[in-house]
Amino acid sequence: MKVHKPILSQIPIALKSIFEDGYYADKVIERHFKMSRGKWGSRDRKFFAESVYDIVRWYRRINESLPKPHQNDFSAITEAYLGLKEIDYPSIESFVGVNAQFFKEAYDSSNDFGVVASYPDWIIERVYKECGKEKGEHILNAMNTQAPLYLRVNPLKGTCEQVMQSLKSEGIDAQIVQTSDSALIIQNRKNVFVTQAFKSGMFEVQDLGSQAIAPFLQPSPKQRVLDLCAGAGGKTLHLAQLMENKGKIVATDIHERKLTELKRRARRNQVDLIETRLAENKWFKRQKGKMDRILLDVPCSGLGVIKRNPDTKWKLQEDRISELIDIQRGILKQAAPMIKPEGKLVYSTCSILPSENQEQVKWFLETHEGWDLEEEVSLLPHENNTDGFYMARLKLVK
Ligand SMILES: C[S@@+](CC[C@H](N)C(=O)[O-])C[C@H]1O[C@@H](n2cnc3c(N)ncnc32)[C@H](O)[C@@H]1O
Question: Which of 67, 110, 125, 386 has CB atoms 3.0–4.6 Å from 115's, for a disulfide?
Fold first, then answer.
C-alpha cells in the first residue's frame, strides 16, 4: 500500500501532541483533519486515524522492541509501525532508518504480557488482583481491538429502517443489531456526523453497552428524573426518548461547557423536557425525596473503554483510582436523599474494576438504610463485544 508522504509525516507530530503535550488522541486527530481540510481524502483520513490509534494502542510493544537509542522517538516508532503493516513509505528525512530485522525479531519474541498486550505494569497488576489473571488477560486483550461504530436511533424521529435508508442514500451501510431494538452497527467506519440523518437528530453515536444504561433505570413518561453526572448528555437524550419527551429530566454536571453541548444536542433531538443546571449542593439539598429516578453515571477510571480511548493506558495514574473511588462515594451519598420512596437509582461506570463497581454498591448498601439492590449487570469486552460497563439498580424500599 502506498500512502502520501505528507500524511506519514503528520503521524509523529500527532504522537508528540498525545504523549508529550497530554492531549487526547481523538482531539489531536480532529485537529489534524481540520488542518488538512481540502487536502486529504476520506481514505487518507481513515488511514491517519487508524495509524495513530494503533500506535497509541501498541505503544509499549513497539517502543520496547526498538533498539535502545530509538526508543521514545516518535519518528522511529512510526517507521517501525509502518514496517509492521508493510506500508511502503518514501524515505522521510526525519526518519531514522530503524533496523527492520532487529525490530521484527524483538516485536515477535517478547513473552512478558505487559509488553505483548501493551499496557503499563501497574494496570496489569491491578486487573490481575481485582479480576483474576485469566479473566483479566481476556479483558485486556479484548480491549486492544478497534471499537465498532454503533448508532442509537431516535424513535421520536424515525425507525431503524428509515435511518438505514437515509444513510444508504449517502453511501453508508448500516445494519440492525439483533439484540437491541434501537441500535445500528456500521462495519466500515465513515464520518456519520456529516449526514442528513444525523443533522436532523435521527440518531446519536453511542456504544452498545452504553445504550443499555438508560433503559436499565426503567424511566416512564411524566416522571421526575435526575441525571446527576450528565456530561454532554449521551444518556440524558436516551432517557428523554424513553420518557417520550414527557415529564422532567434535570441534567447536572460540574462542567458548564458540557451542559451547553447537551442543550445543543437536545435541540437537535427535538426534546424539551431537559433542564440543565450546574451541580450544586445547595440545590440538591432542596430536592429531598423529589425524584422518581436518579442516574449516577459517575466519573471513573475509564478502564472499560480502552478500545475507544487507548491513550487511557498511558494517561491514567493509579493514585487517580483511589481519588475516583472517593468521588463516586461522595456522589452516591449526595444523591441518595433525593429519591422518593419506591424510587430507583442506577449507579453506572465504564470501568471493569470491582473496586469502582460491585464494591461501591456493597459500601452503599452497608452505609444507607432502606435500600435494596434490584439488579446488577457487568458488560465485559471479551464476553459482550461492547465496551466494559457496570450498572446497578437500587431501590428505596422504605
Ligand atoms: C462518565 S461521565 C458522564 C457521561 C454522560 N452521562 C454521558 O452519557 O455522556 C461523568 C461526568 O461526571 C461529571 N462529574 C464529575 N464529578 C462530578 C460531581 N461531583 N458531580 C456531578 N458531576 C460530576 C464529569 O464532568 C463527567 O461529565
Answer: 110
